[in-house]
Request: fold
Amino acid sequence: EQGTHNPLVVGSTPTRPTNLLDMPTEQEPDSGLYGHADALDALNKSVSLEEKLAAIHEALYAQLDFVDRISVAAYDRATDLLKTFLASSPGRNDLVRHEARLAELPSLAEILRTGHSRVVNDLGIFHKGSHVHTRILEEEGYRSSYTFPMYLDGSFWGFIFFNSRTSGRLSASALRVLDVHAHLISAVVTAEMLAVRVLAAAIKTAHDMVHYRDPETGAHIDRMSRYARLIAQHLAATGAATLDDATIERIFEFAPLHDIGKLAVPDRILLKAGRLSDAEREEMKQHTVRGLEMIEAIAHNFGLEQLDGLDLLRHIAESHHETMDGGGYPHGLHAREIPLEARIVAVADVFDALSSARPYKPSWSNHEAFAWLRRMARSKFDEDCVEALVFNAKKVEEIQAQFRDADKER
Reply:
């Protein structure tokens, strides 16, 4: 009988077997067919955004060897802040953790007005610029730049910067290559951000249900999450902690979800006007454990168990009531045993609680709240986190002015 071609067998037309047991062994594949190494294989793996960007940069460098730095800056519309949170460049990297208001960057704002990317073949045109971003670029020796805006469903959410220490290399052909890589970077970063936002949105939806029962305001969430980011940025800038920009943004995004476990607390306890009994207090403490369980369930249901940074959310939900002296809950962790992100959120959350009015207490002044946190530092709160918040007192006031409670606005 004439054999039937089997597309799975390379270079052969075997005779059809009379039964499955007579199926011939497939030939060894030609190594030449499988010898190519995918330069962007890292994009298929569960690795950090930094590693993915580095892989894209390496692939781009093979085509355009003058691209010395790629960075991604995210835009926070609520505060008009543009924040560098991802970068790939050798040597010094002084633009990490940099942020600025878009309104103060007219050249970048023009990109949004015109709808076109920005091509600068000679950064010398900004030589007289006074902005710190411009000065650092000049000091680092960068001479040309291509800036590409990122959009999500038509809404602007950030920029990609390609910087070079060589001027005059941004030709039309080079820009076509950069555009392809810019869209690739945008797709990779946006996919990661969407995954984070889907998880955060799912948990926040559940968290909002808590707020129908728990009288904390939305402004509290806006404030304390930004306090957490202030603390994290200061710790990173001073070298008190090793935090990259992506981690700082995750802390900002996940901080509002610290009390998700309160959804499991009965109304008789959560809404009780008077003092809780010892038994009720112990039941209230379980919201940390319940919060972790909810996060695990939501991450599983959305297929996001491998999401980069998910451990930050787990730690924030479970450990934000641990204290430095080991007297906290649920596990009685001591000092550095407590994850840093949980120590940060604890200070941010308690400060806003102290400086805000509650049905059971008036608001404290910032000075009073700072003083109390300092007294409790070391025994209850991380001293570095407390001092980071106090050091940024001016920015704290700006956040309070922008995100006021509704009753204070009337």
